[in-house]
Amino acid sequence: MTRILVVEDQPAILANVARMLRLEGFEVLTARNGAEGLSLALEEQPSLILCDVRMPEMNGDELLDRLGGDSRTAAIPVIFTTASAENPGREDRMLRGAADYLVKPYDFKELLASIRRHLP
Amino acid sequence: VSRKKRECYWVFSPCPAPPCVDTGPWELLEWKRANMTTATDLEDLDLLATVFDVARTGICVISEKGLFTKVNPAFCAMVGYASEELVGREYAICAPPAVVAVMEKFLAANLADSAKIPSEWQIRRRDGSLFDALVSSRPVTRKNGQRFLVVTFSDITEREAILNLSVVGIALVRNRDFVWVNKAFEQDMLGYEAGELAGKSSIMTYPSPEMYNDLGPQIDKILVEQGTFKIEERVRRKDGSMMWCLVTGRIVERGDLSKGSIWTIVDISKRRVAEVELLESLAREKEASELKSRFVSMTSHEFRTPLAAILSSIELIADYGERLPGEEKAELVGVIKSSVKRMGQMLEDILVIGRADAGRLEFNPEPVDLKSLCERIAQEARKTTQTAHEVELQCTLKKKHYLLDERLLRHVLHNLLINAIKYSPQSGRVGLRVMAGEASMKFIVEDQGIGIPLEDQAGLFTSFHRGANVGGIAGTGLGLAIVKKAVDLHGGSIRVESAVGKGSQFTVILPEARGKSND
After folding, report:
1. What would the mean pLDDT of A85-114 be, rounded to a whole number?
2. What percent of chain B has pLDDT over 70?
3. CA-CA distance, B163 to B494, in Å (whole number)?
4. How far apart, in Å, are the Cα atoms of B219 and each of A26, B173, B215, B251?
5. Helices (H) and strands (E) in chain B — how many of each?
6. How many angstroms away from the CA of A76 is the closest CA of chain B?
7. Residue B305 forms contact with A (CB below 8 Å)
8. B136 has which bridge partners?
9. CA separation, residue B107 to residues A84, B67, B186 (Å)
10. Quick count: other Cβ atoms within 10 Å of Cβ B435?
11. What is the pLDDT of residues B325-350, one digit of tens each?
12. Which of A45, B318, B345, B376 is 20 to 30 A from B355, alpha carbon to alpha carbon?
């Protein structure tokens, strides 16, 4: 079963995304901040990571850098999901290695399409 | 000495004294011839006579009886009389009463003390008009004991006019004291009476004694080293008010401050006011534009989050509903409701700030049961945040009812409590202490949360300002701005003590509104 890690500090959004992905047949891991996300990614080696940007402890940008800097996680595609629609956020993050960048509120079809496109 | 027109000119020379001052021209000439021994003497005499004739300085000789005995053409031109009209007449026809008063004493003392003759006189012309003259004088005693006063005059009307009609202030300063100041500076700009400043210390015109002590020596150093000094600074008027001036100094003698410095002072207060207004309006414009961009950024971010929760809940119910158990569906509806509420609250906050900025937030005090109001607010805060936090409420009240605006107090306490809970993710304890006396109320809201960095505390009450350490904690940056506006409207004060990682304590003091409370 394909394993997806969802890192999101808003509990309602985290729960909904996890619910939907499970109903779509994915195995889902959840984390409430970047630090939790990083340790889960290292331990569980997910196939793909969905990641919010503004989070306590460690934000999405730092998480992306830490994942990219570690050979065990560097190849995992990271899709950013964020409420910040402003540039230079998108271009900057795509350049730094994000697989995709979805602005909230996004619909599930859009999210699933992006996930399927970037799964190895 | 006889010249072409047989006029007699008197000159001072090293030769012996003549028999009599009032000697006729021919007798005098005879005397002169008798006393001239060489052709060179005669040539020297001629030379001096020419000097007397061509000098642009007015020269006259006054006898101890106060009569003009000799006058040169320049003096005649100054006063408008012919030489014949003056010689033998009293000097007083050319002197106003003030000069006569000084001269009479001097003549009475047999021309004994020339030092008492002032160096600036007013001279009266034939037509009665007066002009300012720079005067130098010296008494001369002949061998026969006769005494004369030789006086030279320079017309300084033009110089005086330039200095005193100038709209630019001009001052001569020596040893940091005013030696001379013009009318524009002394009277028009600073409001002193004529003659009040000369001889006084320049400290009177400095914005503060500290500036006189600190800036003064620096200015002197620059004057000695560079010759000039220029500054835009406030200058103190007699009444204590300040005016902005462009002050330029120039040393009188390069490298030597003992000769003093000349200062020009230009009133730039109008320009300064315009500059300050321009800067203020630019700052306001910049602030408005920053506020707008912060608003756009906040709205975008803070509205997208509940919208995402709503959309994902609706999609789950719509597309996966048949596979979801009933209680999960109910939970999703709850998410939609609370997200909509959150957006509603944000809109309400924006409207409150808008009303406050437009001056439309009103202050309507009524008697309120303070304890029960605080209990309700604490309960609502717990309910809104839906966390495990405990709000510990302590009330020490002198009476039951207080005259206050309930809506404003709600804005204050609700926002402070919500913040205390929101920004204490690790700690469950939040306190609200209320201490109210006869006429004022003190509210302390404290938490043991993330705290506020010192550099964020200054702008804490500005709309859309959020601490650098909020991380992913949602917020609009409007709560404390609303709190501050409400406290201000209530005529109260608010202060914050906070340390990062230790927590924050907000203290609000509100005076009870004026009027009669129910108690």
Report:
1. 84
2. 89
3. 57
4. 79, 12, 6, 11
5. 14, 17
6. 24
7. yes
8. B152
9. 98, 11, 35
10. 15
11. 999 999 999 999 989 988 998 888 88
12. B376
Q: Is B110 exposed, middle or buried (0-12, 13-18, 19+ CB in 10 A)?
A: exposed
Residue that is written with structure tokens 């008697």 in the block: B367
What is each CA distance from B98 to B22, B66, B109, B124, in whole angstroms? Answer: 29, 16, 18, 11
Please name the member of B308, B332, B425 whose beta carbon is closest to the beta carbon of A105.
Answer: B308
Tally of residues, chain B: 519
Query: Does residue B267 belong to the interface with chain A, where contact is any CB pair within 8 Å?
Result: no
The residue behind tokens 């600036």 is B120
Contact between B139 and B149 under an 8 Å Cβ cutoff? The reply is yes
pTM, to two decimals: 0.56
CB contact under 8 A, B472 and A52: yes
- Nearest CA of chain B to the CA of A100: how many Å? 17
**Side chain identity at residue B16, one-letter code:** P
Give chain B's largest Cα–Cα span.
Answer: 149
Selected residue of B312, B332, B337, B338 to mutate for chain A interface (largest A Cβ count, 10 A):
B312
Q: Which stretches of B372-492 are assigned E, i.e. beta strand?
A: 390-397, 401-404, 429-436, 440-447
Q: How does the average pLDDT of chain A come out, rounded?
A: 90
Q: Any residues with CB less than 8 A from the CB of A97 and at least 6 apart, and which?
A: A64, A68, A78
| ipTM of the complex in this document | 0.93
Name chain B contacts of A56, Cβ cutoff 8 Å.
425, 471-473
N residues, chain A: 120
Dist CA B50 CA B118 (whole Å): 28
Chain A CB within 8 Å of residue B215 CB = no
**Which residue bears the tokens 């709503």?**
B310
Q: Please state the rounded mean pLDDT for residues A27-34.
A: 94
Dihedral sign, Cα of residue B66, residue B67, residue B72, residue B77: positive
DSSP classification of residue B19: S
Q: Which chain B residues in 5-24 lie under 8 Å from chain A, judged by CB atoms?
A: none
The token duo for B477 is 């940056």
